Each structure stands twice: as C-alpha cells, then as structure tokens.
Amino acid sequence: MLFWSYHMNFSDDDDLPLRTDTQLVTAGRDTAAQKGFVNPPVVRGSTVLYPTAADLHAHRGEFSYGRHGTPTTRALQQALRALEGDACAGVALAPSGVAAISTALLAVLKSGDHLLVCDNAYRPTRLFCDGLLKRYGVTTSYFDPLIGAGIEALFQPNTAAVVVEAPGSQSFEMTDIPAIAAVAHARGALVIDDNTWATPLYHRSLDQGVDISIQAATKYIGGHSDIMFGTISANARAWPQVEDAVRALGVCAGPDDVFLALRGLRTLAVRLKHHQEAGLEMARWLSQRPEVARVLHPALETDPGHAIWKRDFTGASGLFSIVLKPAPQKAVDALLDTVKLFGMGYSWGGFESLAIPFDCTSYRSATKWNPGGPALRLHIGLESVDDLKADLERGFSAFNAATS
Ligand SMILES: *Cc1c(COP(=O)(O)O)cnc(C)c1O
C-alpha cells in the first residue's frame, strides 16, 4: 500500500471518479517527484537551466522560467482545477484577489467596450472599473443584483462582459447567474464571477454558465488570515485570453504564499463545513434576538435569495450580515467595543470570528441601500458557538445600555 501510494500520481488517475472532498486531498500530489514527501517543496526560483544548447533553442523542459510556473505552483493549479470541475480549462495564480479581478477584466476587455457590473460587487472592483478601466476607454454600468434575465435591456452593442458576485459580500443578495449567463452568451459577452463567498466547493460557477471564476484565496482557500492570494479559473472559451493577459501583465504569486494556499486548500472541506454549520446556527440565534431586525443569509429559509441559493449552491460559508433595530452609532460602537471574540477588521475566511459595521449607501448606483437600521457583517470562525453567543450577549447588553 505504501509502495503503491509512493508511485501514485493521483491527478493522472482518471479511471477512478473521486468525490471533491477526496480530490482536495489527492489532487496535485506527485509523490515520486516529491521524493516521497507528502507535500511539494517551496520552490524559490527565477532561472531554470537547460542541459544542452539544443534544449535551450527548442525551449524544451518542464519549466522555463519562475514567473511561468514551478513545481509548487503546478501542484496548487492541479488541485484548484480538480476543485473547479471538468469545465475548467486552466487556473492562473495572482498575488491578491483584487489582482485576480483586474487581470480577468483586462484579459477580456478592450478600449471602446462596455461592461456590466452588479451593484453589490466588492467595492475595489467598482473602483477599478470607475478608475483605471474608464481611463482605458471602457465604460461600466451597474445593475440590480436581482435583475435576472431583465439584464437584457441593459445590453449595448459593445457590451463585452458581465461581472456577478453571489451573494454580495456585504448585503448578501442572490443573483440568478444562469439566467444572466444565458442572456450574456446570446449577446456574445463573457461572464465573470467573484466566487469568493462559496468557493468552488459550494458553488461550481463554471458549471453555471460562468466563463471566468475568480476567488480571493486570501479568504477561505488560505483560511488562516496569513496570506494575500487570488485565483482565476476559466473555461475553454476564456482561458486563452486569461493565459495571454497573465503573461503580458507578469502576474504571478510568491512561493511561500503558493505553498500556504495549497496547504489551506487541503483542509477546505472540513473548515467550510464548520463555518457553514456554525454560521447558520448563529444566524438562526440572531434572528430571534430582539435587537436584530433582519439577518441577511441566503441559506436561511426566510431569506429572499433562498430559492436561488438552494438551486445553484451546495453549501454556505460563515459570512453573513445583520441589520440592527434603529439605534445611535454609539450603541453599535458599544457592542463592538464589548465583544472580545469578534475582532474588528476587514477581510474574512480565516479561523477567527469578525464583526464589522458597513453602509453601502454612498457607493451604490443602480439600487438604493436602505436597510432601516445599522448593519453589521459577521464572520463566524471556528470558536465554540456557545462562546460566540455569550460574547454577543454581552455586546447586546452594552448596545441596549447605550440605546436607552
Ligand atoms: C477580499 C475580497 C476580494 C479581494 O481580495 P484581496 O485578496 O483582499 O485582494 C475580492 N472579492 C471579495 C468578495 C472579497 O471579499
């Protein structure tokens, strides 16, 4: 058995259809090439030497230059490809989630194009579209994330791509991605999805009509709040453009971060399962609290986006929002200053719980953000939910004391 596994290159074994949880453990492992070690080495490298002049002239060799790939990046790319499923034609690695988004957009757009972006998109995505893309001659219009097939009316003759993000990472609306993809493809446009919330484990976006699926791997893939990382996965239609842009822009990721992303990926299934269960338990508990007006979580049966979530997703992560009953800012601040297990900080997807106030009013343009009370985004980490509830209970006491 040991001998067998030593020589086994799991990713080359096509006769055994393995379930995704298993592939997360086995994909990208070339045990023999790793001299028996379970994990690939962290290859730090720029120059790759060619043994002969003939090899050099022919660019013959498994690797050619550090920027174009190493044994470490190849292992991660193979594992991510297995996670994305058969529709994935290639995965590019980027130094951050924002770099993944900007690279994907630059890959498919040109001067004179029009771009459609959902109004709940990650804010730096909007800033990229309204700033650099605009300067390069691309115009962007924003659309209501609930628009569905009605997006047809917003298409212009030069609309080249549509950006979706489901659910939005603050407001958690669910977009009907297959309906939008059907319209986009009929118009010859590509669909780009920011799939950071669910990851491909719970949302196979490339199977849902998406052409390019990006992830801020900084979040759940890394999983430990210790790296900045992005991934760009594309189907056969979009991969040549992505590959070309990655080369032209010189996008690549550092070896330590590549290694940590792969290490995080190996435990994604168990972590996400816990985030999902704990997140839902906390969401249900919060929906019963007198201080909470609404919980924004698509996996709750009462959520307006639940039907789409149930149809298109196989799970939920640990990030959702709550809308508090109307209260002065000092009451919200008292809550945030009282809780100890919920850290105040941006980002999410690590092992730790977080709470952050947010207000989308100033940057929404196609829809109005008017939840009726202060909004908080929560990330439910891997702590005991009993401890998290007790922590929030103390926070709510401080909130109530500051309200009266
Ligand atoms: C964090 C995040 C990003 C950007 O990722 P970085 O690695 O921080 O650049 C993109 N999209 C979503 C939804 C995110 O939450």
From TrEMBL:
TM annotation in the entry: none
Catalytic activity, EC: 4.4.1.8
Keyword Phosphoprotein tagged: no
Keyword terms: Lyase, Pyridoxal phosphate
Enzyme class label: lyase
GO MF annotation: an example: pyridoxal phosphate binding
GO terms under biological process: L-cysteine catabolic process to pyruvate; transsulfuration
Reactions accelerated catalytically: L,L-cystathionine + H2O = L-homocysteine + pyruvate + NH4(+); an S-substituted L-cysteine + H2O = a thiol + pyruvate + NH4(+)
Cofactor(s) it depends on: pyridoxal 5'-phosphate
Protein name: Cystathionine beta-lyase
Species the sequence originates in: Rhodopseudomonas rhenobacensis
